[in-house]
Write a structure and sequence with these properties.
Number of strands: 0
Number of helices: 2
Strand content: under 5%
């Protein structure tokens, strides 16, 4: 499984840390938002994979 959203999470963390270090609250918040976006992509990807597995399983069960 590819960790969908990983890039967003890593970039977001970098922005957050940079924002904290420089006192740039807006950049810090942008980083947190980007991390949340990455987490949402990850959850969506896992849900899609589960649907695909369930669909394949249902097709096999029907014969």
């Amino acid at each position: 499984m590819v960790d969908k959203g990983r890039t967003d999470k890593v970039k977001g963390k970098a922005k957050e840390v940079t924002g904290k270090a420089t006192g740039d609250r807006e950049q810090e918040l942008e980083g947190k938002l980007e991390q949340a976006r990455g987490e949402a992509k990850k959850i969506r990807g896992k849900a899609q994979e589960q649907v695909e597995r369930d669909t394949r399983s249902a097709r096999r069960d029907r014969g």
